[in-house]
Amino acid sequence: MTIVTTESETAPSAGEPPDSGARHKLTAVTGLAALSLDAMASVAYGPEAIVLVLAAAGGYGLGFTLPVTVAIAVLLAVLVASYRQVIAAFPDGGGSYAVAKAHLGRRTSLVAAASLVLDYVLNVAVAVTAGVAALTSAFPALYDDRLWLCLAVLVLVTGVNLRGIVDSARAFIVPTVIFIGSILVLIAVGLFRDAPASTEAAAGHASVLADNATTVGALLLLKAFASGCSALTGVEAIANAVPSFRAPAARRAQRAEVALGALLGVMLIGLSVLISRFGLQPVEGVTVLAQLADASIGHNLGFYLVQFTTMTLLALSANTSFGGLPVLLKLLARDNYLPHVFGLKADRQVHRHGVLALAAVSALLLVFSGGDTNTLVPLFAIGVFIGFTIAQTGMVIHWRQVRGPQWAGKALLNGLGALLTGVSAVVVTATKFHDGAWLVVVALPLLVVAFEIAHRAYGRIGKRLGVGRIPEPPHRDRSLVIVPVSSLNRLTSEALTAAVSLGDEVRAVTVRHADAEDRAQTDALEMDWALWNPGVPLVQLDSARRTLGRPITAYVRELSAAHPDTRITVLIPEVEPARLWQRVLQNQRGAVVAHAVRRDTDAVICRLRFRL
After folding, report:
1. Is the CB of residue 267 less than 8 Å from the CB of residue 184?
2. pLDDT at 344 > cutoff 80
3. Which terminal residue of the chain, N or C, has fewer Cβ atoms less than 10 Å from its own Cβ?
């Protein structure tokens, strides 16, 4: 049973061609800029994560940097090939959620959705803190203000995305191209060097390389692999946001996916080759990428260009989540697992409520972490590997059911992907569990429970509304309109005019309290009412307490019991001031009465706005 809300907050203007929305959608190139920043920026911390783990085994351990990176690149290739198939099979987007919903059951699809939601939110927080960390490394005086800088970057990215995904892609395409170009130049120049051009960046910084370690165990390699797998986050974002591409959307999304995989693989392997070539050792306070830029290009303008573009892209890589998560939230809302407000779409193809919700939760994470990257990184990448595994398992079932040309080979590829990502999910969770990953393990089932609660609530609402069934034909009931009044003025006249236009019978009511001043005021109103003689009776409701809502609701309940076949409407007249600030001058009595009637009766509430 589905409850449907309007799909768009705004309709196309008259005369607008049906495909005019295409200009607000992505091409393969702009899609790469809008949805791949997370994956692209991971080359700044993926190789470093590997090196820092292997450094525990000394110089001998660093020799395994390239083999571990190659293993990650192989997994990347399998994932890209698999997600090309996901895009073709599920062009409406949703990635692992859509696959699991179709082939693995409702509960598994919710696990996939929850894992992606967690990963997207964490990606925003990690990306922003990592970008600000790069900035404070270059300008240490800003270190104490890193939280405010993080929040400022988040506001910037959110603002750009509220203008539409295409505008965000256009805004970020230049820094993306510069970053990719600078990394490729760094790799190309470094491959032609026999020795580092400069080691100035690392000079004076303490090495974190372990002494006298000569053995590398399987556990250490698995931990290095798990840490390096953070470079694979974001690979799924394009498959989640296929509807954001121009037609043919699936084909454009597939091209963007392949381009992402190729660029990311080349950069990861190229940087790892340079790490081995230069015998790089990790040091405190200087990133591995900074040392590679120093060694390859030299400590010159090119070095600072790499640092600046890395800082920019890290901060802006949060845009991947803003492109993918709102689409996923829309699908969950459509299936009644989230509030339907997430399914609304504003101008420029913007899921505004999804963007704002992501920004709000990310801001809370930033405040919780104090803008510290190390607090958030252990939580990262677990959710996405759970989603990877579910998606690949579902695709195996998909190919067995659909068959088609070369279905066996496609199923084998997805099966291999499911095995590799499943093992990776276990490894990543186990190795990072005590570093904070347990929070994700706890949060994931809680999120699934929240989805289920929302779904059951919508089910009850749908059953009560008779959604999916033909309702009884409308009929006319006798109508009684009650108008609360406190004085005679133009607002009272307008309210009674509206009331007699709506109802068969109209009664004005006023509340009289026990004190002498209020009784005198009510008596004066009664006399003026008799002189005015509007043809509507004035009913006085006595109240021992100085309250408006209770006596009026008690009167409404009394009328409902006495006239069960009468439709009762409470029409509440209110002044709407010309200026927003002037609302503080109002007594808010209308809001008090409306709240009480809504809470305690089944009467229809009509609030008449009298604009000044």
Report:
1. yes
2. no
3. C
Distance between CA 392 and CA 402 in Å, rounded? Answer: 15
Residue 270 has pLDDT above 60, yes or no: yes
Tell me which residue has tokens 């919700």.
357
Does the pLDDT at position 400 exceed 90? no
What pTM does this model have?
0.70
* Residue 534 CB coordination number (10 Å): 15
Residue-level pLDDT at 506: 92
Cis preceding-peptide flag for 248 (omega within 30 of 0): yes
Q: What angle do CA 487, 491, 494 make, to 5 degrees?
A: 125
Angle subtended by helix axes 146-162 and 301-316, to nearest 10: 70
**Which residues in 562-581 are b (16+ Cβ under 10 Å) and which e?**
eeeebbbbbbbbbbeeeeee
Q: Are 362 and 124 in contact (CB under 8 A)?
A: yes
CA–CA gap between residue 583 and residue 541 (Å, rounded): 28
Distance (Å, whole) CA 447 – CA 114: 6
Closest residue by Cα to residue 236 from 265, 266, 263, 256: 256
Mean predicted confidence (pLDDT) in 44-58: 76
